[in-house]
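Cross-posted from the bioinformatics board.
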Amino acid sequence: MTGAANLGNAGQGVLIRTAANNTIGGTATGAGNLISGNDKDGVIILTSGATGNLVQGNFVGTNAAGTLAVPNTLAGVTISGGVGNTVGGTTAAARNLVSGNADAGICIISNAIDNIVQGNYVGVDVTGIADLGNAGPGVFIANSSDNTIGGAATGASNLIAFNHKAGIDLASGSGNAFRANRITNNTDLGITLSDTITVTANDLNDEDVGPTGCKTSHS
Amino acid sequence: MELNGTGAGAGSSGLTISGGASTIDALVINRFDSNGIVLTGNGGNLIINSYIGVNAAGTGAVGNGEIGILIEARIWYKATISAQM
């Protein structure tokens, strides 16, 4: 390539619509895909009929070496309305590298339910050390419930760093769990509600509103 | 293997496979006017070791006019015609 022209797919890299139990990548050696340079999302999973899909072992938004950004114009991975899909896993082989994208790393929106995001690198290079931040938040959740980011199991932690907004931005939804993630060096807060940039302190004796009852933020 | 859609014409896609449970392995899919690959049917497809939206070296963006890989369930409704009066 010479110059800076972006000639990736004019739409999404991979679009799964109302289809179940598809696997993008996997844990076997060489199974991962390189999904970069697309003019919309790298991967998008659409509608409540999209269930049981598995996204593992891919590089999304980087070059093949995982060292430089080849951005997707929107999010790296978006689940819009999908139910019970998995991005990553608890082994190193299952890890997706979701970095360098021009919007959020991982986006969960439009009544997406029971999806699991585990063990991924979001905003770092393949080594997990260098800055390869997504331009939006590392993980963005809106109007979606009962999704799990991280988890108690060994290897379930996501590394979410160097993103140009928050590490995790929960705009709306209920029952979403953020467990045991490593969140550091993001431009805004580690975990925030609607990308506010100030900490909402815990307080007593009143009713608060918002997806966590405004009981935040010790990130 | 690289599927290069240069000259394939307007509206072309690289591959269209129906039936589900298909495997796409080690393909570079680019330069089609429409989608790179379309998989329809019952799901259960496997996409591995492929470059989507990037060149074969994995260093720069080059792609298709629409979606790289489109996986879509299609529901076919049976028409029942009976007891025409």
